[in-house]
Design goal:
alpha/beta
């Protein structure tokens, strides 16, 4: 099998209309389509839903399900809320700062820009509680090559020790130094 690209990524939302409006207003994403049924096509289970598809640019699709007959949305209480997030790429730092201003103008609390050395990013939450990241690359080809070279060794070390390997500690030295 050879994957061409991700077809779509789907999450749950609290309210489909609110979600469409938010992603248009804050992220400038258009609604591409919607599917609604009284039962699930793959399982045939009776479970009404609204499935919306948003244009995330460059052929990427972000989708959501509203499930009115299911218990209220929750999140994994054992996973920190910063872990699971959807990251969107913008062209450059100027576009990142404009995205921050747009989000703040919509009344959102925005964290960042955070300096990851190879990219800078901002973070905020959508109405359903999904953490969103908007990022702009700042990496040199050498930095990316350096990361790729040490990645397998880092995964092996992590697997053995469950302690952060220090091979890429250089990525956040400046960000952490700013708070020490």
């Amino acid at each position: 099998m050879r994957i061409q690209q991700i077809h779509h990524v789907a999450y749950r939302c609290k309210d489909a209309k609110e979600t469409v409006d938010f992603y248009k207003r804050v992220m400038n994403m258009d609604l591409l389509g919607a599917i609604a049924e009284d039962k699930v096509p793959s399982t045939k289970a009776p479970d009404p839903y609204m499935h919306i598809f948003l244009d995330a640019g460059a052929g990427n699709i972000l989708a959501f399900f509203e499930l009115p007959n299911s218990p209220p949305m929750g999140r994994d209480p054992n996973t920190p809320d910063w872990t699971q997030h959807i990251a969107f790429q913008v062209e450059d730092i100027d576009a990142l700062l404009k995205a921050k201003a747009r989000a703040e103008a919509s009344g959102l609390e925005v964290v960042g820009p955070t300096d990851h050395t190879i990219f800078k990013s901002i973070y905020f939450w959508d109405p359903s509680g999904h953490r969103l990241e908007v990022a702009a690359w700042t990496a040199s080809p050498e930095q990316l090559a350096r990361m790729k070279t040490v990645a397998p060794e880092m995964v092996e070390e992590w697997s053995r020790t469950k302690q952060p390997p220090r091979h890429t500690a250089w990525l956040h030295e400046q960000e952490f130094a700013a708070t020490d």
